[in-house]
Fold this protein.
Amino acid sequence: MKKQKKGVVSLKYTSTRDSGRIVSAAQAISQGISEEGGLFVPSQLPKYSYEDLTALSKCSYQERAVRILKDFLTDFSEEEIRECVENAYGGDKFSGGHPAPLTLQQNGDVNMYMLELWHGPTCAFKDMALQILPHLLTKSLQKIHSDKTALILVATSGDTGKAALEGFKDVAGTRVLVFYPENGVSPMQKLQMNTQEGSNVAVCAIEGNFDDAQTGVKRIFTNEAVRAQLEARNMMFSSANSINWGRLLPQIVYHISAYCDLMATGEMDYEGEEINIVVPTGNFGNILAAYYAKEMGLPVHKLICASNANNVLTDFLRTGVYDRNRPFHTTISPSMDILVSSNLERLLYHLTGGNTQKVAGWMQQLSETGRYEVDEDMKSVLKDLFWAGFCDDEATKNTIHEIFSVENYLVDTHTAVAANVYKQYVEQTEDRTTPTVVVSTASPYKFPKDVLSAVAGGEQPGNEFQQIAQLASLTGTPIPAPIEGLQGKAIRFQNTCRPDGMTEAVLAMIR
Ligand SMILES: *Cc1c(COP(=O)(O)O)cnc(C)c1O
């Protein structure tokens, strides 16, 4: 292993589909995705002992972030990382001081520590990574001596788009183009994106679902002809989706931070005491970050993967068969309406011990037939690590209703899926004692129609803004300022294209 500075081991990144590609963190973050279509993964993981966790439990969120990022970004100086972290999480970017607070709630006879990740500027957990990614990316581009403008293409199921637009707006050396499924996001999410300010941003709806958007973006990234056109204009592609390592890394921080907060409050009684982490899952980014935290030494009993009616991951984790050949459901938790979870590729890479040939083969089967099946020993490893479940829209609404009536605590539709699946987990495993962190991914005010009807019972009249007002008066919860501020904002973007027109939309933006 190459020593960089005294005592600092340099950590490299490699592609999930080609072990011959070895790059620095700056390169991985700048590029977003490897040229042959693989995803960048760290070649080894830093390990945290009980002493490390104890020390971190006495630190602020920012200090925890600096320590963890420093261990992965060995080509960045501590000062650089500190600056990125301060810019992202300092000041009043996140309301309430702690960017990722825990609050204890009960659902029936089970305790849940809700990890609220939606106090940032766009009211969803995507801010946790997308507030820092622009800083990491700008520094990465400097490190690889690139004076190119980064064109960031984003496929969004609703929340990533807005968070990327907000994070990158008017950041020098970057431009952002967001594609979202025309009928696959909530009206509030659509309004957030279509009213986005900034001179370097654009938004385009596509006639298709999230998978069409994501496949389209990946195809454009690997299209030689388009890359050449960018090159000629001194531009390069990058990604703000969770295929970019710079998106995943900041998400590892809050899983570790949650454990540290539990240590600090005295909830954890002994060395090695385990927690469960329940994650409402779509593209497998958030739960993969929890997996990395576990592999780094965080004592985790089960990673609980919660899906909505698009339960392709539930089936995969239970049976080892990934099969996207099934109906696509448009649900009330739209950010999880995904049948091709791109980050699963990273998990497969790690669980095969870095067998890129195997991973590339499965990914090829997935794109050709929509299906692949992993080996028997991998199936048992998956069962050890994960517990998986799903629930439909009705159960989601019932869960929102139940948690509000019992605890006077309001959750959004995605978080409700997680809470519901956790309850199923407790019923089926009878594990009532492991302290459990439920990852709360969005503010209920991003989905007022469904949250309101869940709380009040039945459809409620009025437009989005009347509904948020009604939700606030009914529940006594504050309307987040960024949501309230959308009212009366001018619409800037109204374009729609077909999935096969996405390349043209990109070319139109750079001409
Ligand atoms: C993106 C998103 C998810 C799914 O997260 P993944 O990292 O894609 O698995 C869940 N809930 C909300 C509110 C989201 O925005």
